[in-house]
Protein backbone atom coordinates (compact mmCIF):
# COMPACT_ATOMS: atom_id res chain seq x y z
CA UNK A 1 0.00 0.00 0.00
CA UNK A 2 1.51 3.35 -1.07
CA UNK A 3 2.23 5.91 1.66
CA UNK A 4 0.67 9.36 1.59
CA UNK A 5 2.68 11.95 -0.33
CA UNK A 6 4.05 15.12 1.29
CA UNK A 7 1.48 17.08 -0.65
CA UNK A 8 -1.36 14.89 0.63
CA UNK A 9 -0.12 15.06 4.22
CA UNK A 10 0.04 18.86 4.12
CA UNK A 11 -3.50 19.09 2.77
CA UNK A 12 -4.80 16.63 5.39
CA UNK A 13 -3.03 18.56 8.16
CA UNK A 14 -4.70 21.81 7.12
CA UNK A 15 -8.08 20.04 6.94
CA UNK A 16 -7.64 18.52 10.42
CA UNK A 17 -6.60 21.92 11.82
CA UNK A 18 -9.96 23.33 10.75
CA UNK A 19 -12.26 20.33 11.26
CA UNK A 20 -11.20 19.35 14.79
CA UNK A 21 -11.81 22.79 16.42
CA UNK A 22 -15.08 23.19 14.49
CA UNK A 23 -16.31 19.77 15.66
CA UNK A 24 -15.27 20.42 19.27
CA UNK A 25 -16.86 23.85 19.38
CA UNK A 26 -20.03 22.56 17.67
CA UNK A 27 -20.44 19.70 20.15
CA UNK A 28 -19.77 21.99 23.15
CA UNK A 29 -22.19 24.60 21.82
CA UNK A 30 -24.87 22.00 21.15
CA UNK A 31 -24.59 20.57 24.66
CA UNK A 32 -24.62 24.03 26.25
CA UNK A 33 -27.61 25.26 24.25
CA UNK A 34 -29.42 21.96 24.81
CA UNK A 35 -28.91 22.25 28.58
CA UNK A 36 -29.93 25.91 28.60
CA UNK A 37 -33.07 25.12 26.57
CA UNK A 38 -34.12 22.40 29.00
CA UNK A 39 -33.48 24.64 32.01
CA UNK A 40 -35.44 27.47 30.38
CA UNK A 41 -38.37 25.14 29.64
CA UNK A 42 -38.38 23.77 33.19
CA UNK A 43 -38.20 27.20 34.86
CA UNK A 44 -40.83 28.78 32.59
CA UNK A 45 -43.13 25.75 32.90
CA UNK A 46 -42.79 25.75 36.68
CA UNK A 47 -43.87 29.39 36.74
CA UNK A 48 -46.80 28.64 34.43
CA UNK A 49 -47.92 25.68 36.54
CA UNK A 50 -47.65 27.78 39.70
CA UNK A 51 -49.81 30.47 38.06
CA UNK A 52 -52.44 27.91 37.04
CA UNK A 53 -52.30 26.39 40.51
CA UNK A 54 -52.77 29.86 42.00
CA UNK A 55 -55.82 30.47 39.80
CA UNK A 56 -57.32 27.07 40.66
CA UNK A 57 -56.57 27.54 44.34
CA UNK A 58 -58.23 30.96 44.34
CA UNK A 59 -61.26 29.47 42.57
CA UNK A 60 -61.47 26.55 45.00
CA UNK A 61 -60.94 28.75 48.07
CA UNK A 62 -63.68 31.10 46.86
CA UNK A 63 -65.93 28.10 46.41
CA UNK A 64 -65.11 26.96 49.96
CA UNK A 65 -66.08 30.38 51.28
CA UNK A 66 -69.38 30.23 49.39
CA UNK A 67 -70.07 26.73 50.72
CA UNK A 68 -69.28 27.82 54.30
CA UNK A 69 -71.47 30.90 53.92
CA UNK A 70 -74.34 28.84 52.54
CA UNK A 71 -73.96 26.17 55.25
CA UNK A 72 -74.30 28.86 57.92
CA UNK A 73 -77.44 30.36 56.33
CA UNK A 74 -80.37 30.38 58.79
CA UNK A 75 -82.67 28.80 56.21
CA UNK A 76 -80.56 25.62 56.29
CA UNK A 77 -80.88 25.51 60.08
CA UNK A 78 -84.60 24.67 59.51
CA UNK A 79 -83.88 21.34 57.77
CA UNK A 80 -86.29 18.58 58.76
CA UNK A 81 -87.88 15.50 57.23
CA UNK A 82 -90.33 17.58 55.18
CA UNK A 83 -87.92 17.96 52.25
CA UNK A 84 -88.53 16.09 49.00
CA UNK A 85 -87.05 12.57 49.11
CA UNK A 86 -86.44 10.11 46.29
CA UNK A 87 -85.25 7.26 48.51
CA UNK A 88 -88.43 5.22 48.10
CA UNK A 89 -89.27 6.08 44.47
CA UNK A 90 -89.35 3.31 41.87
CA UNK A 91 -88.88 5.40 38.77
CA UNK A 92 -87.17 8.57 37.64
CA UNK A 93 -89.50 11.45 38.50
CA UNK A 94 -89.45 15.24 38.84
CA UNK A 95 -91.10 17.03 41.77
CA UNK A 96 -91.36 20.78 41.46
CA UNK A 97 -89.99 22.31 44.69
CA UNK A 98 -91.96 25.55 44.10
CA UNK A 99 -95.20 23.62 43.98
CA UNK A 100 -94.15 21.62 47.02
CA UNK A 101 -93.83 24.96 48.82
CA UNK A 102 -92.53 25.58 52.30
CA UNK A 103 -88.88 24.79 53.01
CA UNK A 104 -88.48 23.12 49.57
CA UNK A 105 -89.36 26.39 47.79
CA UNK A 106 -87.13 28.54 50.02
CA UNK A 107 -84.11 26.25 49.58
CA UNK A 108 -84.61 26.04 45.80
CA UNK A 109 -84.75 29.84 45.49
CA UNK A 110 -81.67 30.26 47.72
CA UNK A 111 -79.64 27.68 45.76
CA UNK A 112 -80.76 29.10 42.40
CA UNK A 113 -79.68 32.60 43.42
CA UNK A 114 -76.25 31.25 44.37
CA UNK A 115 -76.03 29.27 41.11
CA UNK A 116 -77.03 32.26 38.99
CA UNK A 117 -74.48 34.45 40.76
CA UNK A 118 -71.69 31.92 40.05
CA UNK A 119 -72.12 30.40 36.57
CA UNK A 120 -68.86 28.43 37.00
CA UNK A 121 -70.70 26.08 39.36
CA UNK A 122 -72.50 23.20 37.70
CA UNK A 123 -75.07 22.74 40.49
CA UNK A 124 -75.79 23.79 44.08
CA UNK A 125 -77.59 21.12 46.14
CA UNK A 126 -78.32 19.72 49.59
CA UNK A 127 -78.70 16.22 51.02
CA UNK A 128 -80.19 15.74 54.51
CA UNK A 129 -79.75 13.12 57.12
CA UNK A 130 -83.37 12.09 56.48
CA UNK A 131 -82.66 11.36 52.79
CA UNK A 132 -84.16 14.66 51.65
CA UNK A 133 -82.92 16.49 48.56
CA UNK A 134 -82.87 20.11 47.36
CA UNK A 135 -81.13 21.55 44.26
CA UNK A 136 -80.71 24.66 42.19
CA UNK A 137 -81.71 22.67 39.07
CA UNK A 138 -85.25 21.38 38.46
CA UNK A 139 -83.95 18.13 36.96
CA UNK A 140 -85.62 14.76 37.62
CA UNK A 141 -83.75 12.42 39.99
CA UNK A 142 -83.14 8.69 39.51
CA UNK A 143 -85.35 6.16 41.25
CA UNK A 144 -84.28 5.36 44.80
CA UNK A 145 -81.73 8.21 44.92
CA UNK A 146 -80.30 8.46 48.44
CA UNK A 147 -77.82 11.35 48.92
CA UNK A 148 -76.49 9.82 52.14
CA UNK A 149 -74.85 7.02 50.14
CA UNK A 150 -73.05 9.35 47.75
CA UNK A 151 -69.31 9.99 48.12
CA UNK A 152 -69.64 13.78 48.35
CA UNK A 153 -72.01 13.38 51.35
CA UNK A 154 -69.86 10.84 53.18
CA UNK A 155 -66.64 12.82 52.68
CA UNK A 156 -68.11 16.07 54.04
CA UNK A 157 -70.40 14.70 56.78
CA UNK A 158 -69.25 15.58 60.29
CA UNK A 159 -66.59 18.07 59.10
CA UNK A 160 -66.68 21.71 60.14
CA UNK A 161 -64.76 22.93 57.06
CA UNK A 162 -65.51 22.57 53.37
CA UNK A 163 -63.96 19.45 51.79
CA UNK A 164 -63.10 18.69 48.16
CA UNK A 165 -64.31 15.29 47.03
CA UNK A 166 -62.65 12.94 44.62
CA UNK A 167 -63.80 13.17 41.02
CA UNK A 168 -66.93 11.10 40.32
CA UNK A 169 -69.66 10.64 37.73
CA UNK A 170 -72.68 12.79 38.48
CA UNK A 171 -76.29 11.64 38.18
CA UNK A 172 -76.46 13.59 34.92
CA UNK A 173 -73.73 11.46 33.32
CA UNK A 174 -70.59 13.65 33.32
CA UNK A 175 -67.57 13.80 35.68
CA UNK A 176 -67.57 16.43 38.40
CA UNK A 177 -65.76 17.43 41.60
CA UNK A 178 -67.77 18.48 44.65
CA UNK A 179 -66.94 20.94 47.44
CA UNK A 180 -69.25 20.33 50.38
CA UNK A 181 -69.67 21.10 54.07
CA UNK A 182 -71.69 19.64 56.87
CA UNK A 183 -74.77 21.64 58.01
CA UNK A 184 -75.08 21.78 61.80
CA UNK A 185 -78.24 22.39 63.83
CA UNK A 186 -78.67 24.60 66.86
CA UNK A 187 -77.35 21.80 69.04
CA UNK A 188 -74.42 21.07 66.68
CA UNK A 189 -76.17 17.98 65.37
CA UNK A 190 -75.61 17.01 61.71
CA UNK A 191 -78.58 18.02 59.59
CA UNK A 192 -77.09 17.30 56.18
CA UNK A 193 -74.44 18.34 53.62
CA UNK A 194 -74.60 21.31 51.22
CA UNK A 195 -72.27 21.11 48.19
CA UNK A 196 -71.33 22.75 44.90
CA UNK A 197 -70.60 20.67 41.79
CA UNK A 198 -67.72 21.82 39.51
CA UNK A 199 -67.69 20.10 36.14
CA UNK A 200 -64.29 18.82 35.03
CA UNK A 201 -64.81 20.80 31.84
CA UNK A 202 -64.10 23.98 33.84
CA UNK A 203 -60.76 22.55 35.00
CA UNK A 204 -60.03 21.27 31.51
CA UNK A 205 -60.48 24.78 30.11
CA UNK A 206 -57.83 26.07 32.55
CA UNK A 207 -55.40 23.33 31.50
CA UNK A 208 -56.16 23.77 27.79
CA UNK A 209 -55.47 27.52 27.99
CA UNK A 210 -51.89 26.84 29.12
CA UNK A 211 -49.46 27.71 26.30
CA UNK A 212 -46.40 25.38 26.36
CA UNK A 213 -44.43 25.94 23.17
CA UNK A 214 -45.79 24.61 19.89
CA UNK A 215 -46.05 20.93 20.81
CA UNK A 216 -46.54 21.08 24.59
CA UNK A 217 -49.63 20.36 26.67
CA UNK A 218 -50.58 19.86 30.34
CA UNK A 219 -52.19 17.09 32.43
CA UNK A 220 -54.11 17.48 35.74
CA UNK A 221 -53.92 14.43 38.02
CA UNK A 222 -55.86 13.74 41.23
CA UNK A 223 -54.20 12.42 44.42
CA UNK A 224 -55.35 8.85 43.71
CA UNK A 225 -53.81 8.92 40.21
CA UNK A 226 -57.04 9.79 38.32
CA UNK A 227 -56.46 12.00 35.26
CA UNK A 228 -58.83 14.95 35.67
CA UNK A 229 -57.77 16.77 32.51
CA UNK A 230 -55.51 15.94 29.54
CA UNK A 231 -55.34 18.80 27.04
CA UNK A 232 -53.88 16.65 24.22
CA UNK A 233 -55.71 13.34 24.77
CA UNK A 234 -59.13 14.06 26.37
CA UNK A 235 -60.11 10.38 26.04
CA UNK A 236 -57.79 9.73 29.01
CA UNK A 237 -59.85 12.00 31.29
CA UNK A 238 -61.32 10.39 34.38
CA UNK A 239 -59.03 7.34 34.03
CA UNK A 240 -56.35 6.07 36.39
CA UNK A 241 -52.77 6.53 35.18
CA UNK A 242 -52.21 2.81 35.74
CA UNK A 243 -55.13 2.05 33.38
CA UNK A 244 -53.72 4.12 30.49
CA UNK A 245 -52.26 1.96 27.72
CA UNK A 246 -49.34 4.34 27.10
CA UNK A 247 -46.91 3.34 29.86
CA UNK A 248 -44.86 6.51 29.40
CA UNK A 249 -47.28 8.40 31.68
CA UNK A 250 -46.95 5.88 34.52
CA UNK A 251 -43.91 7.75 35.85
CA UNK A 252 -46.22 10.56 37.01
CA UNK A 253 -47.92 8.26 39.53
CA UNK A 254 -44.78 8.25 41.72
CA UNK A 255 -43.36 11.73 40.99
CA UNK A 256 -44.34 14.52 43.38
CA UNK A 257 -42.21 17.17 41.67
CA UNK A 258 -39.20 17.51 39.35
CA UNK A 259 -38.69 16.73 35.68
CA UNK A 260 -38.08 13.63 33.54
CA UNK A 261 -37.94 12.47 29.93
CA UNK A 262 -40.90 10.27 28.87
CA UNK A 263 -42.13 8.62 25.67
CA UNK A 264 -45.80 9.16 24.80
CA UNK A 265 -47.34 7.67 21.66
CA UNK A 266 -43.85 6.99 20.28
CA UNK A 267 -42.56 10.56 20.76
CA UNK A 268 -39.93 11.73 23.25
CA UNK A 269 -41.11 14.44 25.64
CA UNK A 270 -39.43 16.54 28.33
CA UNK A 271 -41.80 16.84 31.30
CA UNK A 272 -41.98 18.70 34.60
CA UNK A 273 -44.32 17.91 37.49
CA UNK A 274 -45.78 20.31 40.09
CA UNK A 275 -47.96 19.30 43.06
CA UNK A 276 -50.39 21.88 44.40
CA UNK A 277 -49.72 22.46 48.12
CA UNK A 278 -53.34 23.50 48.71
CA UNK A 279 -55.31 21.06 46.54
CA UNK A 280 -52.86 18.14 46.49
CA UNK A 281 -53.39 17.72 42.72
CA UNK A 282 -50.51 17.17 40.34
CA UNK A 283 -49.98 19.17 37.17
CA UNK A 284 -47.61 17.78 34.55
CA UNK A 285 -46.40 19.84 31.58
CA UNK A 286 -44.94 18.04 28.52
CA UNK A 287 -43.19 19.33 25.40
CA UNK A 288 -41.58 17.41 22.58
CA UNK A 289 -37.86 17.04 23.05
CA UNK A 290 -37.26 17.92 19.39
CA UNK A 291 -38.75 21.37 20.01
CA UNK A 292 -36.54 21.91 23.08
CA UNK A 293 -33.33 21.13 21.16
CA UNK A 294 -34.43 22.87 17.97
CA UNK A 295 -32.41 26.01 18.79
CA UNK A 296 -29.32 23.95 19.59
CA UNK A 297 -29.53 22.12 16.26
CA UNK A 298 -29.92 25.36 14.34
CA UNK A 299 -26.80 26.79 16.01
CA UNK A 300 -24.82 23.65 15.18
CA UNK A 301 -25.95 23.75 11.53
CA UNK A 302 -24.89 27.40 11.27
CA UNK A 303 -21.46 26.67 12.78
CA UNK A 304 -21.03 23.68 10.48
CA UNK A 305 -21.78 25.87 7.43
CA UNK A 306 -19.23 28.48 8.53
CA UNK A 307 -16.65 25.73 9.20
CA UNK A 308 -17.22 24.24 5.75
CA UNK A 309 -16.56 27.59 4.04
CA UNK A 310 -13.39 28.13 6.07
CA UNK A 311 -12.30 24.56 5.31
CA UNK A 312 -12.62 25.08 1.54
CA UNK A 313 -10.55 28.31 1.73
CA UNK A 314 -7.79 26.64 3.77
CA UNK A 315 -7.75 23.60 1.48
CA UNK A 316 -7.08 25.86 -1.52
CA UNK A 317 -4.20 27.50 0.35
CA UNK A 318 -2.87 24.06 1.37
CA UNK A 319 -2.86 22.85 -2.25
CA UNK A 320 -0.82 25.91 -3.37
CA UNK A 321 1.67 25.48 -0.50
CA UNK A 322 2.05 21.73 -1.07
CA UNK A 323 2.78 22.21 -4.77
CA UNK A 324 5.50 24.79 -4.00
CA UNK A 325 7.24 22.35 -1.62
CA UNK A 326 6.92 19.11 -3.62
CA UNK A 327 8.50 20.44 -6.89
CA UNK A 328 12.09 21.10 -5.65
CA UNK A 329 12.11 17.89 -3.61
CA UNK A 330 11.19 15.89 -6.74
CA UNK A 331 14.19 17.35 -8.68
CA UNK A 332 16.66 16.52 -5.87
CA UNK A 333 15.34 12.95 -5.70
CA UNK A 334 15.98 12.42 -9.44
CA UNK A 335 19.63 13.59 -9.17
CA UNK A 336 20.31 11.38 -6.14
CA UNK A 337 18.89 8.33 -7.98
CA UNK A 338 21.39 8.72 -10.86
CA UNK A 339 24.36 9.04 -8.46
CA UNK A 340 23.38 5.93 -6.50
CA UNK A 341 23.34 3.79 -9.65
CA UNK A 342 26.95 4.80 -10.51
CA UNK A 343 28.19 4.02 -6.99
CA UNK A 344 26.50 0.57 -7.04
CA UNK A 345 28.25 -0.41 -10.29
CA UNK A 346 31.73 0.52 -8.98
CA UNK A 347 31.28 -1.20 -5.62
CA UNK A 348 30.29 -4.49 -7.28
CA UNK A 349 33.69 -4.84 -9.00
CA UNK A 350 35.72 -4.04 -5.86
CA UNK A 351 33.67 -6.40 -3.69
CA UNK A 352 34.15 -9.52 -5.88
CA UNK A 353 37.97 -9.29 -5.87
CA UNK A 354 38.33 -8.52 -2.15
CA UNK A 355 36.05 -11.31 -1.00
CA UNK A 356 38.36 -14.08 -2.30
CA UNK A 357 41.25 -12.83 -0.11
CA UNK A 358 39.08 -12.59 2.95
CA UNK A 359 37.71 -16.16 2.63
CA UNK A 360 41.18 -17.76 2.92
CA UNK A 361 42.07 -15.90 6.10
CA UNK A 362 38.69 -16.75 7.61
CA UNK A 363 39.19 -20.53 7.13
CA UNK A 364 42.53 -20.46 9.03
CA UNK A 365 41.00 -18.50 11.89
CA UNK A 366 38.11 -21.00 12.04
CA UNK A 367 40.49 -23.94 12.70
CA UNK A 368 42.15 -22.16 15.62
CA UNK A 369 38.73 -21.25 17.01
CA UNK A 370 37.73 -24.94 17.09
CA UNK A 371 40.86 -25.84 19.15
CA UNK A 372 40.19 -22.98 21.54
CA UNK A 373 36.56 -24.03 21.88
CA UNK A 374 37.53 -27.63 22.82
CA UNK A 375 39.96 -26.41 25.52
CA UNK A 376 37.35 -24.02 26.83
CA UNK A 377 34.82 -26.85 27.11
CA UNK A 378 37.37 -29.05 28.98
CA UNK A 379 38.20 -26.18 31.33
CA UNK A 380 34.49 -25.59 31.99
CA UNK A 381 33.92 -29.25 32.90
CA UNK A 382 36.92 -29.24 35.27
CA UNK A 383 35.67 -26.09 36.98
CA UNK A 384 32.26 -27.68 37.31
CA UNK A 385 33.77 -30.77 39.00
CA UNK A 386 35.67 -28.52 41.42
CA UNK A 387 32.49 -26.58 42.19
CA UNK A 388 30.55 -29.81 42.76
CA UNK A 389 33.27 -31.11 45.12
CA UNK A 390 33.18 -27.85 47.07
CA UNK A 391 29.42 -27.99 47.24
CA UNK A 392 29.61 -31.63 48.48
CA UNK A 393 32.04 -30.52 51.19
CA UNK A 394 29.61 -27.85 52.33
CA UNK A 395 26.75 -30.37 52.36
CA UNK A 396 28.87 -32.73 54.50
CA UNK A 397 29.56 -29.90 56.97
CA UNK A 398 25.87 -29.07 57.21
CA UNK A 399 25.03 -32.78 57.66
CA UNK A 400 27.57 -33.02 60.50
CA UNK A 401 26.02 -29.97 62.17
CA UNK A 402 22.52 -31.46 61.87
CA UNK A 403 23.65 -34.82 63.33
CA UNK A 404 25.41 -32.98 66.19
CA UNK A 405 22.22 -31.06 66.97
CA UNK A 406 20.20 -34.31 66.83
CA UNK A 407 22.63 -36.01 69.24
CA UNK A 408 22.23 -33.05 71.66
CA UNK A 409 18.44 -33.29 71.38
CA UNK A 410 18.50 -37.05 72.12
CA UNK A 411 20.68 -36.43 75.20
CA UNK A 412 18.21 -33.81 76.46
CA UNK A 413 15.35 -36.27 75.74
CA UNK A 414 17.09 -38.97 77.80
CA UNK A 415 17.49 -36.53 80.71
CA UNK A 416 13.81 -35.64 80.54
CA UNK A 417 12.79 -39.34 80.57
CA UNK A 418 14.96 -39.92 83.67
CA UNK A 419 13.22 -37.04 85.38
CA UNK A 420 9.81 -38.53 84.45
CA UNK A 421 10.91 -41.89 85.94
CA UNK A 422 11.95 -40.23 89.21
CA UNK A 423 8.61 -38.35 89.38
CA UNK A 424 6.71 -41.64 88.77
CA UNK A 425 8.54 -43.36 91.65
CA UNK A 426 7.70 -40.43 93.97
CA UNK A 427 4.05 -40.65 92.90
CA UNK A 428 4.11 -44.43 93.62
CA UNK A 429 5.28 -43.74 97.18
CA UNK A 430 2.48 -41.19 97.69
CA UNK A 431 -0.11 -43.72 96.48
CA UNK A 432 1.19 -46.29 98.97
CA UNK A 433 0.78 -43.73 101.75
CA UNK A 434 -2.85 -43.12 100.64
CA UNK A 435 -3.42 -46.90 100.72
CA UNK A 436 -2.13 -47.12 104.31
CA UNK A 437 -4.34 -44.19 105.34
CA UNK A 438 -7.37 -45.92 103.81
CA UNK A 439 -6.47 -49.11 105.70
CA UNK A 440 -6.23 -47.24 109.03
CA UNK A 441 -9.56 -45.45 108.25
CA UNK A 442 -11.17 -48.84 107.65
CA UNK A 443 -9.97 -50.10 111.05
CA UNK A 444 -11.29 -46.97 112.75
CA UNK A 445 -14.66 -47.41 110.98
CA UNK A 446 -14.84 -51.03 112.27
CA UNK A 447 -14.08 -49.91 115.80
CA UNK A 448 -16.72 -47.19 115.53
CA UNK A 449 -19.27 -49.72 114.32
CA UNK A 450 -18.49 -52.00 117.30
CA UNK A 451 -18.89 -49.12 119.76
CA UNK A 452 -22.17 -48.11 118.08
CA UNK A 453 -23.46 -51.66 118.45
CA UNK A 454 -22.64 -51.60 122.14
CA UNK A 455 -24.52 -48.31 122.55
CA UNK A 456 -27.71 -49.89 121.22
CA UNK A 457 -30.43 -47.69 119.84
CA UNK A 458 -28.60 -44.56 120.88
CA UNK A 459 -25.75 -45.39 118.56
CA UNK A 460 -27.81 -46.51 115.57
CA UNK A 461 -27.21 -43.31 113.63
CA UNK A 462 -23.54 -43.34 114.40
CA UNK A 463 -23.36 -46.97 113.17
CA UNK A 464 -24.74 -45.89 109.77
CA UNK A 465 -22.12 -43.14 109.51
CA UNK A 466 -19.39 -45.55 110.51
CA UNK A 467 -20.54 -47.97 107.80
CA UNK A 468 -20.41 -45.25 105.16
CA UNK A 469 -16.94 -44.19 106.29
CA UNK A 470 -15.81 -47.81 106.08
CA UNK A 471 -17.18 -48.10 102.55
CA UNK A 472 -15.37 -44.92 101.49
CA UNK A 473 -12.13 -46.24 103.04
CA UNK A 474 -12.45 -49.48 101.08
CA UNK A 475 -13.11 -47.60 97.82
CA UNK A 476 -10.10 -45.35 98.47
CA UNK A 477 -7.94 -48.41 99.09
CA UNK A 478 -9.12 -50.02 95.87
CA UNK A 479 -8.53 -46.79 93.85
CA UNK A 480 -5.06 -46.44 95.38
CA UNK A 481 -4.27 -50.02 94.40
CA UNK A 482 -5.34 -49.42 90.79
CA UNK A 483 -3.36 -46.18 90.64
CA UNK A 484 -0.30 -47.95 91.97
CA UNK A 485 -0.53 -50.60 89.25
CA UNK A 486 -0.86 -47.92 86.52
CA UNK A 487 2.12 -45.96 87.88
CA UNK A 488 4.18 -49.15 88.11
CA UNK A 489 3.44 -49.92 84.46
CA UNK A 490 4.36 -46.33 83.54
CA UNK A 491 7.69 -46.62 85.41
CA UNK A 492 8.49 -49.83 83.53
CA UNK A 493 7.70 -48.17 80.15
CA UNK A 494 9.80 -45.13 81.08
CA UNK A 495 12.78 -47.42 81.86
CA UNK A 496 12.30 -49.12 78.49
CA UNK A 497 12.13 -45.73 76.68
CA UNK A 498 15.28 -44.58 78.47
CA UNK A 499 17.17 -47.60 77.18
CA UNK A 500 15.98 -46.94 73.61
CA UNK A 501 16.97 -43.27 73.79
CA UNK A 502 20.47 -44.13 75.06
CA UNK A 503 20.87 -46.63 72.22
CA UNK A 504 19.73 -44.05 69.63
CA UNK A 505 22.13 -41.47 71.08
CA UNK A 506 25.02 -43.89 70.63
CA UNK A 507 24.03 -44.49 66.98
CA UNK A 508 23.94 -40.72 66.32
CA UNK A 509 27.47 -40.40 67.72
CA UNK A 510 28.65 -43.06 65.22
CA UNK A 511 26.90 -41.21 62.33
CA UNK A 512 28.58 -37.97 63.46
CA UNK A 513 32.03 -39.58 63.32
CA UNK A 514 31.38 -40.96 59.80
CA UNK A 515 30.10 -37.56 58.58
CA UNK A 516 33.28 -35.89 59.82
CA UNK A 517 35.47 -38.31 57.87
CA UNK A 518 33.30 -37.84 54.74
CA UNK A 519 33.72 -34.05 54.99
CA UNK A 520 37.52 -34.35 55.12
CA UNK A 521 37.59 -36.57 51.98
CA UNK A 522 35.28 -34.15 50.09
CA UNK A 523 37.52 -31.18 50.98
CA UNK A 524 40.60 -32.98 49.59
CA UNK A 525 38.71 -33.76 46.30
CA UNK A 526 37.65 -30.11 45.95
CA UNK A 527 41.23 -28.84 46.42
CA UNK A 528 42.58 -31.27 43.81
CA UNK A 529 39.83 -30.26 41.30
CA UNK A 530 40.69 -26.56 41.71
CA UNK A 531 44.39 -27.19 40.98
CA UNK A 532 43.47 -29.17 37.85
CA UNK A 533 41.13 -26.38 36.64
CA UNK A 534 43.88 -23.78 37.08
CA UNK A 535 46.29 -25.82 34.91
CA UNK A 536 43.74 -26.16 32.10
CA UNK A 537 42.97 -22.44 32.32
CA UNK A 538 46.65 -21.59 31.69
CA UNK A 539 46.69 -23.80 28.57
CA UNK A 540 43.45 -22.21 27.36
CA UNK A 541 44.91 -18.70 27.75
CA UNK A 542 47.87 -19.66 25.55
CA UNK A 543 45.56 -20.98 22.82
CA UNK A 544 43.40 -17.85 23.09
CA UNK A 545 46.41 -15.62 22.53
CA UNK A 546 47.29 -17.70 19.42
CA UNK A 547 43.70 -17.32 18.17
CA UNK A 548 43.87 -13.55 18.69
CA UNK A 549 46.97 -13.27 16.53
CA UNK A 550 45.35 -15.33 13.74
CA UNK A 551 42.14 -13.29 13.96
CA UNK A 552 44.19 -10.12 13.58
CA UNK A 553 45.73 -11.53 10.43
CA UNK A 554 42.29 -12.46 9.09
CA UNK A 555 41.03 -8.97 9.88
CA UNK A 556 43.86 -7.41 7.92
CA UNK A 557 43.02 -9.72 5.01
CA UNK A 558 39.36 -8.74 5.10
CA UNK A 559 39.98 -5.00 5.35
CA UNK A 560 39.95 -4.45 1.62
CA UNK A 561 36.80 -6.64 1.25
CA UNK A 562 35.15 -4.67 4.05
CA UNK A 563 35.74 -1.38 2.26
CA UNK A 564 34.09 -2.64 -0.91
CA UNK A 565 31.16 -4.17 0.99
CA UNK A 566 30.62 -0.93 2.86
CA UNK A 567 30.64 1.00 -0.39
CA UNK A 568 28.05 -1.38 -1.84
CA UNK A 569 25.95 -1.15 1.32
CA UNK A 570 25.99 2.65 1.27
CA UNK A 571 24.96 2.71 -2.36
CA UNK A 572 22.02 0.39 -1.65
CA UNK A 573 21.02 2.54 1.32
CA UNK A 574 21.14 5.67 -0.79
CA UNK A 575 19.02 4.01 -3.47
CA UNK A 576 16.49 3.01 -0.82
CA UNK A 577 16.37 6.57 0.56
CA UNK A 578 15.87 7.94 -2.96
CA UNK A 579 13.02 5.50 -3.62
CA UNK A 580 11.33 6.47 -0.34
CA UNK A 581 11.73 10.17 -1.14
CA UNK A 582 10.29 9.57 -4.60
CA UNK A 583 7.27 7.76 -3.10
CA UNK A 584 6.71 10.66 -0.70
CA UNK A 585 6.70 13.16 -3.54
CA UNK A 586 5.01 11.20 -6.36
CA UNK A 587 3.12 8.50 -4.37
CA UNK A 588 4.47 5.70 -6.62
CA UNK A 589 7.60 3.57 -6.86
CA UNK A 590 10.24 4.55 -9.40
CA UNK A 591 11.21 1.56 -11.51
CA UNK A 592 14.99 1.27 -11.30
CA UNK A 593 17.34 -1.64 -11.93
CA UNK A 594 18.87 -2.98 -8.73
CA UNK A 595 22.64 -3.52 -8.82
CA UNK A 596 23.92 -7.04 -8.08
CA UNK A 597 26.00 -6.69 -4.92
CA UNK A 598 27.90 -9.17 -2.74
CA UNK A 599 25.85 -11.38 -0.39
CA UNK A 600 27.23 -9.56 2.67
CA UNK A 601 25.96 -6.12 1.55
CA UNK A 602 23.09 -4.64 3.63
CA UNK A 603 21.07 -1.42 3.74
CA UNK A 604 21.52 1.15 6.52
CA UNK A 605 20.08 4.53 7.45
CA UNK A 606 21.09 7.64 5.57
CA UNK A 607 22.72 8.97 8.73
CA UNK A 608 25.27 6.08 8.66
CA UNK A 609 26.59 6.75 5.13
CA UNK A 610 30.32 7.24 5.93
CA UNK A 611 32.83 5.45 3.71
CA UNK A 612 36.14 3.88 4.73
CA UNK A 613 39.26 5.96 3.94
CA UNK A 614 40.25 3.29 1.46
CA UNK A 615 37.05 3.87 -0.49
CA UNK A 616 38.28 7.38 -1.30
CA UNK A 617 34.98 9.03 -0.19
CA UNK A 618 33.55 9.90 3.24
CA UNK A 619 30.14 11.30 2.24
CA UNK A 620 27.57 10.53 -0.50
CA UNK A 621 27.04 14.24 -1.12
CA UNK A 622 30.78 14.65 -1.97
CA UNK A 623 30.47 11.69 -4.35
CA UNK A 624 27.50 13.32 -6.14
CA UNK A 625 29.28 16.70 -6.35
CATH level 1 class label of the largest domain: Mainly Alpha
N-C termini distance: 34 Å
**CATH H-level name of the largest domain... which superfamily?**
Methyl-accepting chemotaxis protein
How many domains make up the 3D coordinates? 3
Shape: flat
Helix-residue proportion: 55-70%
Largest sheet: 6 strands, antiparallel
User: The CATH topology of the largest domain, please?
Assistant: Helix Hairpins
Q: Note poorly predicted spans.
A: 588-625
Average pLDDT figure: 77
State the total count of DSSP E strands. 12
Helix/strand-derived category reads alpha+beta
Strand proportion, as a percent range, falls in 5-15%
The CATH architecture designation of the largest domain is Orthogonal Bundle
Radius of gyration: 60 Å
The run of helices and strands is HHHEEHEEEEHEEEEEEHHHH
Q: Helical segment tally?
A: 9
Question: What report would you give on this structure?
Answer:
By secondary structure, the protein is α+β, with helices and mostly antiparallel strands. The protein folds into three domains: 21-54 and 210-292, PAS domain (Beta-Lactamase), CATH 3.30.450.20; 72-204, Beta-Lactamase (2-Layer Sandwich), CATH 3.30.450.20; 320-583, Methyl-accepting chemotaxis protein (Helix Hairpins). The protein is 64% helix and 11% strand. The protein contains nine helices and twelve strands. The strands form two sheets. Strands 1, 2, 3, 4, 5 and 6 form a six-stranded antiparallel sheet that branches. The chain has a six-stranded antiparallel sheet with strand order 9-8-7-12-11-10. A hairpin with a 6-residue loop joins β11 (267-275) and β12. α1 (6-71) crosses α7 and α7 (294-455) packs antiparallel against α8 (460-586). The longest helix has 162 residues, at 294-455. It is flat and about 150 Å long. It starts with 5 loop residues before the first helix and ends with a helix. The relative contact order is 0.09.
